[in-house]
Automatic annotation (TrEMBL):
It is a multi-pass membrane protein. SUPFAM superfamilies: Multidrug resistance efflux transporter EmrE. Keywords: Cell membrane, Membrane, Transmembrane, Transmembrane helix, Transport. The chain crosses the membrane at residues 31-50, 57-76, 82-103. It holds the Pfam family Multi_Drug_Res. This is Multidrug efflux SMR transporter. Its main location: membrane. Belongs to the drug/metabolite transporter (DMT) superfamily. Small multidrug resistance (SMR) (TC 2.A.7.1) family.
Amino acid sequence: MYWVVLIASGVLEAVWATALSASKGFRRPWPVVVFAVSMTLSVVGLAWAMRGIPVGTAYAVWVGVGAVLTVLVAVLRGEEKLGVARALLLVALIGCVAGLKVVS
């Protein structure tokens, strides 16, 4: 269950990062609300997952999941381009996150 909560918290990290960008410097109220709620839930989930997963592993997985999903959301929204090198690096990052799960 710790891993499920950790992955969900990583997904919420991508939500709050995307909402933070959409808030345009905290000038748009709804993205600010989404940012605050998702960030709170993300960090609470991370803290809970750390009860059963070592801190270094949990943090690396949380950041990795959030980073990959944030990039993918930005690509889908047309805000960033996904070249071959970036795609390969994201796949490698996913592989590292999966590897942490396997060896834990």
